[in-house]
């Protein structure tokens, strides 16, 4: 991590503290303490376990896409640290833009070729986006009318989030199946948008865009060939997402809200994930907390319970990943001996 990343980390921690202070400032401190003491710590532990397993399943997705016959075995820490690194850099960069490059560096630290690592991460990204969209569509079919009826303002944000995801997936599919047309379309769209920039900078942006499209298209050919891997990775990604979505349900159980319907809670959490994705602030800070309060106020009767639930949910799904990511960045895998042993076997 460089100074810029460290500064961003402290800014996001400071912003988080500020948000929770604002939400809790009108609540009696003794009431918060009493609510905390009354927590069901078994379910709170399950919530922590659920997110840790979610990272583990994501590591399995990565391992599935990387695994090849005749190559050395990847250590568990090599794979597990990559989702943690992603969680950290997603949390401190706008629109979670830093996660992909950080994962690439993490894989290259494991002596994995940069081109291959980029290919695998691209496949992982496409699969993840598709599975998020599938889960969201199912959630909308199950319970969107109820959400739209009770939270009309929030429903607009939910639809906007869905539109962004659909547009992203559609663009990626266009590259895969309509490569030449997509390149021409991007050039036509970008040229007037970049008209006011200097020619040198404009050409650099256009060249970078075309290079990214070419790279994605080449890797999409790999994606089409590896159908079994893609299917297995897709099923694991669904499991990963559900382990993440279930965190909020376990937090509600920890708050002794035993009356909640698990399907309704999962649908609400899926909606929050979709809303957070449209906020440019790292981690969707502000938007995530507002969405939680709006959607779960009906599940948690007391103001102190609502604020504590929001804090626990946010810590487990967001801040914990940041802290674990710092450990993952600092603790690099020791693989030199593994690589040497594999080379000796080949000889």
Automatic annotation (TrEMBL):
Alphabetic keyword roster = Antibiotic resistance, Cell membrane, Lipid metabolism, Membrane, Transferase, Transmembrane, Transmembrane helix
- What is the superkingdom listed in this entry's lineage? Bacteria
Give TM regions. 5-22, 42-66, 125-142, 154-179, 233-255, 262-281
Could you tell me the EC number(s) of this protein?
Answer: 2.3.2.3
Q: Enumerate the GO terms in the molecular function aspect.
A: phosphatidylglycerol lysyltransferase activity
**CC annotations in GO:** plasma membrane
The task this protein performs is described as: Catalyzes the transfer of a lysyl group from L-lysyl-tRNA(Lys) to membrane-bound phosphatidylglycerol (PG), which produces lysylphosphatidylglycerol (LPG), a major component of the bacterial membrane with a positive net charge. LPG synthesis contributes to bacterial virulence as it is involved in the resistance mechanism against cationic antimicrobial peptides (CAMP) produces by the host's immune system (defensins, cathelicidins) and by the competing microorganisms.
Q: What is this protein called?
A: Phosphatidylglycerol lysyltransferase
- Its source organism is Companilactobacillus farciminis
Q: What is the lineage of its organism?
A: Bacteria, Bacillati, Bacillota, Bacilli, Lactobacillales
Q: In the UniProt record, what gene is named as encoding this protein?
A: mprF
């Amino acid at each position: 991590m460089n100074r810029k990343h460290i500064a961003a980390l402290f800014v996001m921690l400071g912003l988080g503290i500020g948000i929770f202070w604002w939400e809790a400032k009108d609540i009696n401190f003794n009431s918060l303490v009493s609510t905390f003491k009354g927590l069901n710590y078994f379910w709170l532990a399950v919530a922590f376990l659920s997110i840790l397993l979610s990272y583990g399943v994501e590591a399995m997705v990565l391992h599935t896409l990387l695994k090849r016959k005749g190559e050395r075995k990847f250590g568990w820490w090599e794979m597990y640290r990559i989702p943690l690194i992603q969680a950290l850099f997603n949390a401190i960069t706008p629109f979670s833009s830093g996660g992909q490059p950080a994962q690439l560096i993490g894989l290259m630290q494991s002596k994995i070729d940069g081109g291959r690592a980029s290919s695998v991460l691209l496949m992982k990204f496409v699969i993840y986006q598709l599975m998020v969209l599938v889960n969201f569509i199912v959630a909308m079919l199950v319970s969107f009318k109820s959400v739209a009826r009770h939270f009309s303002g929030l429903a607009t944000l939910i639809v906007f989030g869905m539109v962004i995801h659909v547009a992203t997936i559609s663009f990626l599919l266009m590259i895969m199946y309509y490569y030449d047309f997509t390149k021409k379309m991007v050039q036509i769209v970008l040229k007037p948008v970049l008209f006011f920039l200097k020619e040198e900078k404009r050409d650099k942006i256009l060249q970078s865009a075309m290079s990214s499209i070419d790279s994605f298209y080449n890797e999409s050919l790999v994606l089409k060939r590896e159908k079994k891997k893609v299917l297995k990775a897709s099923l694991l990604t669904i499991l990963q997402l559900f382990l993440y979505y279930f965190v909020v349900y376990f937090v509600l159980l920890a708050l002794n809200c035993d009356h909640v319907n698990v399907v309704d809670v999962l649908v609400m959490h899926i909606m929050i994930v979709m809303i957070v994705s449209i906020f440019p602030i790292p981690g969707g800070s502000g938007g995530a907390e507002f969405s939680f309060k709006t959607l779960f106020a009906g599940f948690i009767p007391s103001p102190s319970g609502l604020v504590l639930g929001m804090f626990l949910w946010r810590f487990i799904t967001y801040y914990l990943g940041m802290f674990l990511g710092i450990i993952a960045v600092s603790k690099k895998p020791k693989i030199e001996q593994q690589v040497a042993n594999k080379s000796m076997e080949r000889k």
